[in-house]
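Exercise 7. Given the encoded structure of a 196-residue chain, write a plausible sequence.
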């Protein structure tokens, strides 16, 4: 503690910045691990975050439109601000995010099933190419089965992948910050040894 007090103002600032940066990295790793362990809370937090960002965007957009009215004497009528605020309110209801995610995977599943059926029809039409018939039929069965899995487990897949992405994102960035801090600390330590 006494050594810290003896440092110059600039070195104190750098040291505090370094400590806060290191704590941010450790916090990000903890948040990432917590996200992977608490699926429901992660989805709720992601939904709330999107809701707050959307509402802020909507309010800023409305202020921009009012500023245009004051400076240019005309209001460029647009519903974008209200749409952002409405989307934000919907996202704050966590059920909406899950429903949207499920809908995306259901649509994806339908498209994969259609591709599976199209592959099967193409294989049957070109059955004179016997060497390709069985692989194409197998491919079409796999595609159709994958599409059915996507449709029947759309919400589970969405939740699992969202939580996995958020968890990995925070862990990777946290580890990156920590390794950067350790690298800087080693560099400064070696540099001081050279000065001595």
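Solution.
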């Amino acid at each position: 503690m006494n050594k810290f007090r003896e440092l110059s103002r600039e070195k104190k600032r750098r040291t505090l910045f370094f400590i806060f940066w290191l704590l941010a990295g450790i916090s990000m790793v903890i948040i990432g691990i917590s996200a992977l362990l608490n699926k429901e809370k992660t989805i709720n937090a992601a939904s709330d975050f999107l809701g707050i960002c959307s509402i802020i965007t909507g309010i800023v957009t409305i202020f921009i439109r009012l500023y245009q009215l004051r400076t240019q004497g005309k209001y460029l009528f647009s519903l974008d601000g209200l749409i952002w605020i409405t989307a934000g309110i919907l996202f704050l209801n966590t059920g909406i995010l899950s429903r949207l995610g499920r809908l995306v995977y259901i649509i994806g599943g339908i498209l994969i099933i259609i591709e599976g059926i199209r592959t099967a029809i193409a294989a049957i039409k070109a059955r004179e190419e016997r060497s390709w018939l069985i692989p194409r039929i197998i491919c079409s069965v796999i595609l159709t089965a994958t599409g059915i899995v996507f449709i029947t487990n759309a919400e589970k897949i969405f939740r699992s992948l969202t939580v996995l992405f958020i968890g990995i994102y925070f862990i990777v960035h946290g580890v990156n910050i920590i390794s950067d801090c350790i690298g800087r600390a080693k560099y400064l330590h070696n540099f001081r040894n050279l000065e001595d």
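Remark. The first helix runs from residue 2 to 6. Students should compare their own answers with the one above.
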